[in-house]
Task: inverse folding
């Protein structure tokens, strides 16, 4: 795998990309908005940039439990999406390859079918696992199609046209497909698609909608959130672009779970005037909440501030922030290296992707702290490693 510098990777993420088990008492109320029932149970989360000193105490909150080294063949490009379902790891890389691994890193199947024939696609814009039907579902925006494959062996099953919407992301949970619908410029006269959140039972007929589009946000093409759907075992979280509320999605309801107060949050006027994204990334404003994952009493999420992605670990039991640290910091914590890159929750454990570049950086900087699994690791020919971590 071609090695890139840590700094270049961060810049690419910034420019081109560019969580409810424990709860204190709260007040419930519900209103009917569009076709989902909305419940307000939001717990306030206040973020500070000034407690990096607690980073060295992460070992008191998290413990590494296991590593999965993905098989060296096929050699993967940069990973774009990962989902773990029923003890299978599904990944998509930037070359539009879908590879499925077991929990020891052995390849079960791969799909690399670029083309216009049956079972082929032009691009994997998003994918999800329909656990009810044991299907792997790929969305190809260029062909406006959903392609269905067996989640067991990758065998092609069927394809269906999805003329509308043109979602930026999809998820399947609680018997329904959910789509993040960034804008409605392709269907200005069809009000059904003038919402950010769309839901369907069968994948192509939209029956439920939520969050009407904001004209200013829709016109602003900058999308700072790295993603919007976050699978947390038996929960699916959703946080819209530029939003500070994290919602839990269910078949018929949307529940506000967390109200995150970032330091110096991005004011609405910056969106209204469509501020230059380079200037925004270099500003003192905080925005772009993403990677919202929760395990037991710990909540993790990320946001942008002053050119950096900041990682927050929050203790829901004591209602206090544990740490807020910059990604790719000068001294990564060897006991919990994945704080930089938590990508999901599976069986009550956080998991993250350790890229070859990250592992190489780790080896060079702190060779004495390196786990045995990485002693013979070759960043040019080995694939990423998935690391799992549990709360204490």
Result:
């Amino acid at each position: 795998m071609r090695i890139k510098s840590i700094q270049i990777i961060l810049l690419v993420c910034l420019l081109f990309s560019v969580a409810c088990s424990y709860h204190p008492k709260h007040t419930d109320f519900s209103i009917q908005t569009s076709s989902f029932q909305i419940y307000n149970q939001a717990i306030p989360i206040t973020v500070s940039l000034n407690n990096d000193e607690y980073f060295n105490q992460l070992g008191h909150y998290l413990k590494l439990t296991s590593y999965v080294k993905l098989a060296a063949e096929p050699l993967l490009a940069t990973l774009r999406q990962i989902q773990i379902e029923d003890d299978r790891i599904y990944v998509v890389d930037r070359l539009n390859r879908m590879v499925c691994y077991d929990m020891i890193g052995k390849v079960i199947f791969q799909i690399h079918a670029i083309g216009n024939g049956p079972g082929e696609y032009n691009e994997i814009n998003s994918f999800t696992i329909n656990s009810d039907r044991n299907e792997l579902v790929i969305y190809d925006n260029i062909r406006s199609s959903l392609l269905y494959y067996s989640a067991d062996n990758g065998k092609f099953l069927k394809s269906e046209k999805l003329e509308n919407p043109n979602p930026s992301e999809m998820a399947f949970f609680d018997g329904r497909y959910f789509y993040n619908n960034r804008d409605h410029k392709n269907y200005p006269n069809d009000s059904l698609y003038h919402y950010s959140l769309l839901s369907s039972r069968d994948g192509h007929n939209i029956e439920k909608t939520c969050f009407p589009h904001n004209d200013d946000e829709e016109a602003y093409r900058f999308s700072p959130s790295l993603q919007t759907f976050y699978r947390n075992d038996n929960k699916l979280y959703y946080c819209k672009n530029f939003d500070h509320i994290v919602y839990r999605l269910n078949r018929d309801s949307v529940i506000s779970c967390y109200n995150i107060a970032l330091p110096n949050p991005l004011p609405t006027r910056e969106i209204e005037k469509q501020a230059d994204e380079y200037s925004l990334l270099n500003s003192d404003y905080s925005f772009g909440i993403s990677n919202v994952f929760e395990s037991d009493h710990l909540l993790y999420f990320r946001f942008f501030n002053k050119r950096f992605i900041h990682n927050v670990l929050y203790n829901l039991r004591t209602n206090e922030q544990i740490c807020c640290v910059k990604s790719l910091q000068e001294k990564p914590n060897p006991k919990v290296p994945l704080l930089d890159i938590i990508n999901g929750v599976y069986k009550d454990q956080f998991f993250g992707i350790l890229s070859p570049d990250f592992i190489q950086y780790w080896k060079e900087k702190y060779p004495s702290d390196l786990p045995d699994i990485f002693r013979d690791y070759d960043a040019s020919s080995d694939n990423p490693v998935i690391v799992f971590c549990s709360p204490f």
About this structure: Residues 6-16 form the longest helix (11 residues). Residues 216 and 268 are 9 Å apart (CA to CA). DSSP finds five helices and 26 strands in the chain. The domain at 6-391 is CATH 2.130.10 (Methylamine Dehydrogenase; Chain H).
